[in-house]
Every structure is written in structure tokens, then in C-alpha cells.
Amino acid sequence: MFEVRIYGKSEFAWLMFPKMKNPRAAQDKLLRWIKKDKRLHKRLLKLANSRDDNTYNSDQVRLLLKKYGEPGEYDDY
Fold this sequence. Notes:
The protein is mainly α. It is about 55% helix and about 5% strand. A two-stranded antiparallel sheet has the order 1-2. The two termini are about 20 Å apart.
């Protein structure tokens, strides 16, 4: 079972897309996915500690897991 805790945004994204060449590329991909879903994007911003936060807090991680599943469940890299 995946541990729900605070993750750096690039750290979490790289867990989601481990086959990507670097964490920044994974973070960019996850952000594109998030921004495609305006409702999800709004909810994540609402749960954020600040707009410039470089981490996902536990509530945000739970929301992302609910939307996309646990890391390793996607073959679409």
C-alpha cells in the first residue's frame, strides 16, 4: 500500500511515472494531466498551503491517488 504523506511535487510525479528520464519531466507531465481536469486543479489549489508550495500535502496526495490510482498503475508514460 502506498504511504500517504507530504511529497515534493517532482518526487510524487516521478513515483507516478518512474520510466521518465528525470523528476522534472515527470512533474511537467503530471501537471499537464492535472490542468486538463479543471475541477481537480481547483480542488488541489484549495487544499494547498500556499500557491507556490513545492509539495503535495496529505490531502492533495489522497485526491491525486483517488483520481489517478497508486503509482505504478499507469502504463501510459
